[in-house]
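Continuing from the previous page...

OK, I double-checked the sequence for Peroxisomal membrane protein PMP34 against my notes and this is the correct one:
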Amino acid sequence: MASVLSYESLVHAVAGAVGSVTAMTVFFPLDTARLRLQVDEKRKSKTTHMVLLEIIKEEGLLAPYRGWFPVISSLCCSNFVYFYTFNSLKAIWVKGQRSTTGKDLVVGFVAGVVNVLLTTPLWVVNTRLKLQGAKFRNEDIVPTNYKGIIDAFHQIIRDEGILALWNGTFPSLLLVFNPAIQFMFYEGLKRQLLKKRVKLSSLDVFIIGAISKAIATTVTYPMQTIQSILRFGRHRLNPENRTLGSLRNVLYLLHQRVKRFGIMGLYKGLEAKLLQTVLTAALMFLVYEKLTAATFTVMGLKSAHKH
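Thanks. Re-ran it with the corrected sequence; updated structure tokens here:
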């Protein structure tokens, strides 16, 4: 039984990773636009397509895909860790009983914490590589010069200390509620729909994936803005504020942001983020559900795949 469970978790993990990589690749330019809007406060363009057009005009056609490889590798690791932990914990805790929304939320939360602690360094490097060579409107930003993932790790540890790799950990831990909220709504909506019909169509999965992600993103977006700023960590302001993104820093950055841009400043780039995450999440869940179902059918493990 244990071998089936761990094998099952592995299938979920691989399917989750493949699903997210496919989805992220398709909607990657939207993420580029969102990150620019969050980090580069002086950028005048407000809408997503205007920012993307500007980036292409100033930095070339492939600029919206800058940093794709590190993002995809991090995403692969991150989702593998998340889905593996989520499904292993769920299998251990639920043990054949019906899962409840509360259990899904707790399991999602624990899986998220494990994920954050293991993969934050990858995302810090990611954010830097993605913004490298960008034409910023804000002159307080110190440019970087990394040759690739390994070189970025090396330079950050050398110049800023090993803890800089965990920049933004605190908001990331708070953001663990994002996938937890998303999974809770996703599993809940799925359960509601399954009461009415035998199985979900692709469109059903796509729609509930989209709804659950939209709710989770809107609730947690201000934290994501702060997380991006901390991970990027290249603003010349407040050198003493370079620690691990403690609660004080997070509150300070939130306060600064509201003071300068009003409450809507916390939601800068939300349109791009919603477009990207909702479409990505929906497509990811679609690929994930299809892949796990196909794999379990092929392996004759249909009975093991109960929710």
